Amino acid sequence: MSRVPFTPEQYGELVSKLTPPSRMLRGYWRAFWVGGLICAFGQALTLWAERLNLGEITAPMFTTSVLVFLGTTLTGLGVYDVIGKYAGAGSAIPVTGFANSMAAPAIEFQREGAIMGVGARLFTLAGPVLAYGIASSVAVGIVYWLIRGWVL
Amino acid sequence: MDTVWLFVKAFVVGGLICDVGQLLIMRTKLTNARILVLFVTSGVFLTALGLYKPLVDFAGAGATVPLTGFGYSLAMGAIEAVNRYGFWGAFVGGISRTAAGITAAIVFGLINALVFKPHAKP
Could A141 and B105 be called an inter-chain contact, meaning their C-beta atoms sit closer than 8 Å? Predict the structure, then answer.
């Protein structure tokens, strides 16, 4: 097989130029209904949490933990990759996708050992998300503290 | 009927947020990692500006389950902790509010790697 003399960028441009609009629409539709379904399932878990009399603070913890559990388990079973291939952002953006982004590389790099394989690879995608998410929450907290100090 | 409406709102809003991600995947060259970081930080700043809370009140899990909702929890946690502890709350609130989700992902991720073997990519 001969190699195509293209850079990945040029290839990507060519693909998006040649992709028919119907395929783009299909991508949006798939992301929409799969992502929507995961969120609706999260809503069901929240209602369930209310029936279990979990409080305002603990109910979201219950919902998130169950979704994370399902995300990692389906990843381990190899199901989440299949869903991801079908749904694109529809399965990547919900918190189940965050769980998948941690579990998938951890499983894939088992060979590299428990420490630098599993332990470190858990955070290949989650690391940046946590770093910038947490840092920006600190920034927001400090700005809020400053504003509150001036106003009150 | 009210319950059905709750599900419809969660489904539609959650689906639309995912479609924003799909748009970024198909129309830009941003890597997955960049898109996820963008979603979390957008959630944090939209919450700080007071724009995300109304969406959460409206759509429930439709707004909290996507990664922007993780940002929402981080920012709300930081703000509430500043109210409670003052300055140092900014360093406490984000993680403590999201602790369950982060810990669940670490623990279940580890257990997964012990239990399952790598799969061939589909």
Answer: no
* SS3 assignment for A75-94: HHCCHHHHHHHHHCHHHHCE
Is any Cβ of chain A less than 8 angstroms from the Cβ of B56?
no
Please state the ipTM of this predicted complex.
0.95
B58-69 pLDDT per residue, tens: 999 999 999 999
In a domain, B122, yes or no: no
Q: What is the mean pLDDT of residues A12-29?
A: 82
Q: Is residue B78 part of a domain?
A: yes
Whether B18 is in a domain gets the answer yes
User: What are the residue boundaries of the structural domains of chain A, listed by start?
Assistant: 29-121, 123-152
H helices within A52-122, ranges in order? Answer: 58-76, 79-87, 89-92, 95-108, 120-121
Give A3's pLDDT tier (boundaries 50, 70, 90): low
- Chosen for mutation from B108, B110, B111, B114 (greatest number of chain A CBs closer than 10 Å) is B108
Number of domains in chain B: 1
Contact A98, A126 (CB under 8 A): yes
Residue B44 lies in a domain: yes
Residues from chain A contacting residue B23 (CB–CB below 8 Å): 28
pLDDT of residue A16: 72
Whether pLDDT at A138 is above 60? yes
Buried b (16+ CB within 10 A) or exposed e, B76-94: bbbbbbbeeeeeebbbbbb
Is residue B1 pLDDT above 70, yes or no? no
